[in-house]
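INSTRUCTION: Work out how this chain folds

Token vocabulary: learned, describes local backbone geometry

RECORD BEGINS BELOW THIS LINE
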Amino acid sequence: MPPVRYPLTTVAGLAGCSFGLVFGAFGATTAHAQGTQQRIVFSVDFQGPTIGRPDSVGGVPMTEGDVLLAPGGAPAYGPLPAPEIALTGGQLGLSRYSQCVGHAAGDPCRIEVDALSDGLEPLLFPSTVSAQPKRRFWFSVDEYAIGIVGPPPAHAQVASEFSVGDSACDIFVDTGLPVGPLPPGAVQPNNVALIDGNGTQSATGFVQPGLGLVEPTPPTLPQQLPNVGDNVDALDVGDWAPFPPLGAFFSLDAGFPDPYTSGTYSGSAVLEGKRPGDVLRIASAGSVILTYANATQLGLDLAGPIGSDDLDALVVRENGTAGFQPSQKPFDWYSTTDAPGTDMVLFSVRRGSAVVGQPDSIFGLPIEPGDILTTPLPVSQGGLSPFPGIFIAAENLGLRTQRSGAGQRDELDALELLGDPWYDCNKNGIDDAVDIANGTSVDSNANGIPDECESPIMRYCWCTDEAAPCGNVDNDSGCANSTGVGATLTTGGTSSVGADDLTISVANMPTGVNGIMFMGDAWQLPTPFKDGARCVYGKIFRYPVKNTGVSGSYTYGPGLVAYSTGWPLGTITAGSTWYFQGWYRNQTGPCGQGTNLSNAVQVDFVP
């Protein structure tokens, strides 16, 4: 799980900071919290062996209509027990759920859930917004998706995991996309595995935290049911404990044939009187399933009869206005006023849908089952067809398409959009797997953890574009000050409590100014504060004031542990983790706020 970020708690020792840095100013700042109820939930299709397995909490046989959790509530390294049921298909309002509990894997019992959303995905911002918040697409593919080999360094991706049959219940993430809409070739094709099916090392040598599913799932033609392994079919990250506050948004399955395998999909939508291209919504557990956005509003069922398109992945940001207000052009869901924009709905379509191969309304390109689509661009807005618009072309996610000359049409099975990274041990605002894939972190033992995170002393909190209060970026330290660079915090010695030889130094500050070092027991991604970026939160304790002198620097330690014994709530002990950051005066700083901060360091103390 990602770290829980706590609101700042001040302590008595913070009063009376003699050089004028008023720590009370911190008291008004609350760390952005990734809600404690945020969970990764998913479903699996009817074809794999998890269908009928008892879940790991109540022993209830799992079905393709259930919303599942990794065992223990969060992905972990395996071997793992079976997943948990977060919500049953009955709580999602599926009428045949009770009849299907305990049915055999490979039997299409007509309760399959194809896509999930809690309606609270982070908004995507238009390119006119200068400070773009980080956004990442998580996605899954089926066992037939071959993928495009991404650039070095080597890492787990769709292409590598397909080669050993391990891609179908993995979750992948993009490695960096510009603002959409993106046609094919906008970026070099790439993706990286973030979460694994079973949490054990695959035949490719890579390992990530797992979901408790069964791998591998080798593709077979003609298809043989049940499959040897599982396939993730829906995905969401949100407040699913016990039910999303806006209700559950989802889609159900088509009943037409898969042109690739010649198998037939489960037909759960028709059974409920819905179209497989509809976005459905249920307000509370066990209530009536309503149609939130019908297929026609999404540009579906226009190239064939009703029910000829199957929505297969889903992202929803509900705007709070009753009903569905479809986007008329990308980013009209974003508003700088108090009035909400349109609803943001992104989706994919299943292989075999009639809309596949039709021209999209934004680029006029043939739609593929690996594309992330958005609602049609109307003719009045320059739309080129009545069909959905391509928001992210599949090639940018490292997926193959016939559009780009491949004989293969990779299918996007599930989709989620996140802002804050879920796994970010080095605290730079980027998923660890993406750091490794992009070569900004080394993972020499291929365990999915950047090597710097496996050291007891790790520097972090660099002043990125998003963190710099007035454009005073310094990607290797704190935010730039009046010297033209940022203050740099470094360490010496060890994290041994017994040795108490740790030193923490801050350099590249203005000369002759006062500063302090403070420590806390929680962290946050770099957040603008005064002229700098703050990353240390929780219970805050400060060390004595020091002057930067003629060198523009100061050092604390050895003796940091001994000094901390004066704070009953802040005593450094073996097994504790503390975060340290420097704060100093800078009256002529670039942002005019009078003070600035260094980068930070995390120290895991040992005996």
